[in-house]
Design brief:
The protein is mainly β. The protein has one helix and 23 strands. It has a five-stranded antiparallel β-sheet with strand order 1-13-6-16-2, with no helix packed on it. A hairpin with a 5-residue loop joins strand 19 and strand 20. The chain is elongated and about 65 Å long.
Length: 325
């Protein structure tokens, strides 16, 4: 009997037993409203590389709805967005680096909406999300889709939020999709406690082999397509920050005794750390200003303000916020 039950479960469509968080307002949702007090900052810069309105007909031109400035600051709603087009990208920067705190660390806002005839279905133009701590090397969140790719969703096609995970645009306008840096694979080229860039990459959504994109498990991503007009592709509204260095010290690793003093500091800062390897000082936009291997560093050349001191020991890394007087 147990064997029979197992066989029957194995034959069931994956969407019946491997669901993700549901829509905003439904129990178990991870949707975050733009007015949530969890947000401490918003993206301050945005660079767009538009994709075509329709990837198989380049003569139609590129997407052209909205301007880069509309992705900066708090969400504006349905029309205050910038459209990426098929495969287009948006790279966002921040006044202070994002760090890997407890739970989600930032959220992406799009302008999805519910289907008026079936409110369990939503029009969602989705995108991959990547992060970087140097603006050069980017690392993708492991996105997964359970939307069937047997038949192409048309330009007005709808899906259920429960069918996708770690894609931007899981929720309706003014509700952000949260992302937890713990879910990005560790890499020596990514400092999860100093993420300076977030990149959004439109999922083309065409299921034909010539243009198809794939999730982290090798599934073809089926997305509303084609949308051959100026607002084609993912419509970026905002990126909200939950954990950044300007508002929080990165928690110290248990068992590592690290201290900096005096704080505030005028000239010389003392670093107390066992097996010290290096000390780096960054400004609020994540630029490295100096590096030292000494336990006392001279900050007299810096202007007054807030800085971050990144301390590397033989086995750990800790970031401290200091005030220069």
């Amino acid at each position: 009997m147990k064997k029979l039950v197992f066989i029957l479960l194995a034959m069931m469509p994956v969407t019946l037993w491997a669901q993700f968080a549901p829509a905003a307002g439904v129990a178990g949702t991870t949707a975050m409203h733009a007015d949530s007090s969890a947000f401490v900052a918003w993206a301050t810069g945005c660079t767009i590389e538009r994709g075509p309105q329709r990837i198989d007909r380049p003569s139609l031109g590129l997407a052209n709805f909205g301007e880069e400035a509309l992705a900066v600051g708090k969400p504006g709603g349905t029309m205050d967005v910038v459209s990426l087009g098929d495969g287009g990208t948006a790279t966002l920067t921040f006044a202070s680096p994002i760090y890997n705190g407890d739970g989600p660390d930032f959220a992406v806002f799009e302008n999805g909406f519910a289907n008026a005839l079936d409110t369990t279905m939503y029009f969602l133009e989705i995108a991959f999300v990547e992060v970087s701590s140097d603006g050069v090397n980017f690392f993708r969140f492991p996105a997964v889709t359970h939307v069937s790719a047997e038949t192409q969703l048309n330009g007005s096609g709808c899906i259920k939020p429960e069918q996708i995970h770690n894609f931007a645009s899981k929720y309706v306008a003014m509700y952000g999709t949260p992302f937890d840096l713990d879910e990005v694979e560790d890499n020596a080229l990514l400092d999860k406690n100093k993420v300076t860039h977030v990149r959004i990459i439109d999922v083309v959504g065409n299921i034909s082999p010539e243009y198809a994109t794939y999730d982290s498990e090798g599934h073809v991503v089926n997305d509303p397509w084609p949308t051959p007009f100026g607002s084609s592709g993912f419509d970026l509204d905002a990126v909200g920050v939950i954990h950044d260095l300007a508002h929080n010290d990165v928690p110290e690793n248990e068992g590592v005794a690290v201290a900096v003093y005096p704080n505030p500091v005028k000239d010389r800062l003392t670093i107390q750390a066992e097996s010290l390897q290096s000390v780096e000082v960054y400004n609020l936009v994540g630029q490295k200003l100096m590096r030292s291997t000494e336990t006392v560093i001279d900050l007299s050349g810096l202007t007054e303000g807030v800085y971050f001191v990144r301390i590397e020991t033989s086995d750990k890394m800790v970031t401290k916020r200091i005030v220069k007087q």
